[in-house]
Amino acid sequence: MNVRDVQAVITASGYERHGRPYGGSSFRACTCPKVGCGAVASGSERDDCPEHRLNPVLLWHWSAECPQVLAAARTAVDRGLAVFALPIGGRVPERGWQLQATLLPERLPELLAGRGVGIGCRASGAVALDLDVHGDEDGPGVLAALADRLGETVPETFAVATPSGGRHLYFRAPMGCTIGSTSGGRTPLGPGIDVRGPGHRSGGYLVGPGSIVGGRPYVVVQDVPVAPLPGWIEALLTRETTARV
Length: 245
What we know:
The protein is α+β, with helices and mostly antiparallel strands. The protein has 2 domains: 3-65, no CATH class; 67-237, Prim-pol fold (2-Layer Sandwich). Helix content is 22%, strand content 21%. It contains 7 helices and 15 strands. It is globular. 39% of the residues are buried.
């Protein structure tokens, strides 16, 4: 985890960093919420508290200390999206992430301790559209134009803003759906639109709300129920025969 990402976690949490050490093991302006270790606001901290030695150089709170991270993950779970842990500041999960994915909110504090948030599509029973905004790509515009051309509409659904200015749109997959995952403009939906689906085996995933990558957060921007996958999108995606997972 680089310094910029750690700082972003603390900025998002609303907490101050512990402060610069003075007089040995004491720290100024501590706003640590984990009072169980003996730390108090504007007080000192115990050297032997492992929660405060995750990064002994900077002594920042990590993602588990950030209430916004857990709140965002709980929001996703409340909408029926299964959460797993990502390396903090990263987009690539560790092996076995599919088995971690959970819909149980009580598991989140332990699961996400010092971690980022991922959403597993197979465990969620969801198809997600990753609408990129990068360079000449305008995923949201491409999807809107496609819907208009077909005389269809994109329904309101649970949506997450990405650091690039794009959107992740989540849809409830129909029973038995095996839509796979495609990237790089290879989907029939058009350039700038990546697809993550349940697939045949493990399914795809997306970086979830509450994660911070490159110092910038993924944020829930539309907290509404996950809408059923529109039939016109399903019809286009089921023609796709490559890059299934």
